[in-house]
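To illustrate the input format used throughout this study, we show a single complete record. The first block contains the structure-token representation of the backbone; no residue identities are included at this stage. The design step must infer an amino acid for every position from geometry alone.
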């Protein structure tokens, strides 16, 4: 069920986002080697999302791993030899990568803004036959194990989303914004309890 995105958290995030910088000329250059970019880490940077990109960097040392976020967040980023940090505005530019990783991003944004973000994601990745993909970790309403504990957790999270005036999406709603952004296919894997991993292909 879609809910309107109101003031508060969304507007604060949007205001910060619009102050971010973009690369000179907005030119997108293909990555020189295997590369994954974690888009829009939310502060504090030591939340589990950063542990995930660090885990990827550790498991695949040949892969370049980057976190892209707002300038004031990147300024506070910890020194990390395996993960680099770059400031930017995901509405204007996302660093080129073979794969993009977005966790708990889209419940903060309505359909119009989500499509804008996804279009920038599509610009940043190579074609599907070259390995390009966007990996989204988020809730897909109605997906996941049909167990009472899972459904109870979904209800509690639903109440939380209502409090922050966010959005939850069923698969049909996810598909709508994916197709509007120009993607050709997607795959949903319910492997994280109430959270799903969505692989999105250009």
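Output of the design step:
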């Amino acid at each position: 069920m879609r809910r309107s995105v109101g003031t508060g958290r969304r507007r604060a995030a949007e205001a910060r986002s619009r102050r971010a910088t973009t690369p000179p000329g907005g030119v997108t250059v293909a990555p020189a080697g295997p590369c994954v970019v974690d888009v829009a880490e939310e502060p504090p940077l030591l939340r589990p999302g950063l542990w995930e990109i660090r885990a990827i960097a550790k498991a695949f040392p040949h892969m370049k791993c980057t976190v892209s976020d707002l300038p004031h967040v990147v300024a506070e980023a910890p020194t990390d030899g395996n993960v680099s940090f770059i400031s930017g505005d995901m509405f204007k530019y996302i660093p080129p990568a073979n794969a993009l990783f977005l966790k708990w991003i889209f419940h903060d944004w309505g359909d119009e803004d989500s499509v804008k973000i996804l279009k920038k994601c599509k610009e940043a990745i190579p074609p599907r036959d070259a390995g390009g993909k966007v990996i989204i970790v988020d809730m897909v309403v109605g997906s996941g194990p049909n167990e009472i504990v899972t459904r109870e957790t979904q209800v509690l999270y639903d109440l939380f989303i209502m409090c922050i005036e966010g959005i939850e999406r069923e698969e049909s709603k996810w598909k709508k914004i994916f197709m509007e952004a120009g993607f050709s296919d997607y795959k949903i894997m319910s492997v994280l309890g109430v959270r799903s991993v969505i692989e999105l292909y250009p």
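Structural context for interpreting the output: Residues 133 and 201 are 5 Å apart (CA to CA). The two ends are 26 Å apart (CA to CA).
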